[in-house]
UniProtKB/TrEMBL annotation:
It comes from the Bacteria. Keywords: Isomerase. Signal peptide: none annotated. It comes from Chryseobacterium suipulveris. Its EC number is 5.3.1.6. This is Ribose 5-phosphate isomerase B. The keyword Isomerase applies. GO terms for molecular function: ribose-5-phosphate isomerase activity. The lineage of its organism: Bacteria, Pseudomonadati, Bacteroidota, Flavobacteriia, Flavobacteriales. Belongs to the LacAB/RpiB family. Pfam families: LacAB_rpiB. The keyword Methyltransferase does not apply.
Length: 143
């Protein structure tokens, strides 16, 4: 069973709980919080989740905040993380096929929960194509 990290801020809390419930029978999910809808600082939850993907404890990660931007920016500070902000399934699919992204950022304030689930499922189920994309992905990490 694929191991997935999940984390959110207060704006993503409801979506995190929904996604966990929908995915729990197909994936092993490690929840990095937050665990309430009270206001929090998203990096406090994103960095531990991203670290778990970076070190192989989890294979992929799901991040949720209001716009998706904050969690995506925080995750992408990690050298081995490629986190894509996605608001439609086609973007999630391409982020996996072409960029081999290992984390996804969902904008909870801009899409319905049901669409968020479709996006996450597409992300988790789509393989990396490799080939011509492989050399490009290898050039992403700068240091």
């Amino acid at each position: 069973m694929k191991k997935i990290a999940i984390a959110c801020d207060h704006a993503g809390f409801e979506y995190k709980e929904y996604l966990k419930n929908q995915l729990k029978d197909r994936y092993e999910i490690q929840d990095f919080g937050t665990n309430t809808p009270d206001s929090v600082d998203y990096p406090d939850f994103v960095h531990p989740a991203a670290t778990s993907v970076e070190n192989g404890e989890n294979e992929m990660g799901i991040l949720i905040c209001g716009s998706g931007q904050g969690v995506q920016l925080s995750a992408n500070k990690h050298q081995k993380i490629r986190c894509a902000l996605c608001w439609m399934p086609e973007l999630a699919e391409l982020s996996r096929q072409h960029n081999n992204c290992n984390m996804i950022a969902i904008p909870a304030r801009f899409i319905a929960k049901e669409l968020a689930l479709q996006i996450v499922e597409k992300f988790l189920e789509t393989p990396f194509e490799g080939g011509r994309h492989e050399k490009r992905v290898e050039k992403i990490a700068f240091c």
